[in-house]
Specification:
This protein is an alpha/beta fold. It has 4 helices and 4 strands, in the order βαβαβαβα.
């Protein structure tokens, strides 16, 4: 990898759109969504092949694949009830394992953004209101 800050684009931009505009991102992010029927493992065959195909396509343009795993929102944004459902969580962890297996099989560096919104929702509902407190001191400029 180059010894510099890397820049990337989300998969909402097709690779063909990027290349037709002479855009060469270092990283291309793709979301993996859903748990159960219709979720990302079923988008190609065999199960999980989507990760393999995306990785190959991203690498073909000289970029590093990044996968944003976004499954915890399957029951609705901010709904944390799924973590108490053993059936849901068994499917969830099976899909997480499949993602890492498919990534590992590529033998190439890959970035994973693991449930970015979920952690914010967990923090916002933490006992003691931890979600309302910033870990950073507030800065208020003094007025002379």
């Amino acid at each position: 990898m180059p010894n510099r800050l890397l820049g990337g684009l989300g998969a909402g931009n097709s690779i063909s759109d990027m290349t037709s505009q002479q855009i060469h991102p270092d990283i291309i992010d793709t979301y993996l969504v859903g748990v159960g029927s219709g979720s990302w493992p079923t988008w190609n065959s065999p199960d999980g092949a989507y990760v393999t195909y995306v990785s190959a396509n991203v690498r073909a343009v000289g970029a590093v694949p990044m996968f944003t795993l976004y499954q915890m929102a399957s029951r609705g944004e901010g709904n944390l009830g799924a973590i108490d459902d053993a059936t849901f969580m068994a499917s969830y962890w099976a899909q997480v394992k499949l993602m890492y297996q498919k990534i590992g099989a590529t033998g190439q560096p890959t970035l994973v953004n693991l449930e970015p919104d979920f952690w914010g929702y967990v923090l916002s509902t933490a006992p003691g209101g931890a979600g309302s407190r910033s870990p950073w001191p507030s800065y208020e400029p003094s007025v002379s």
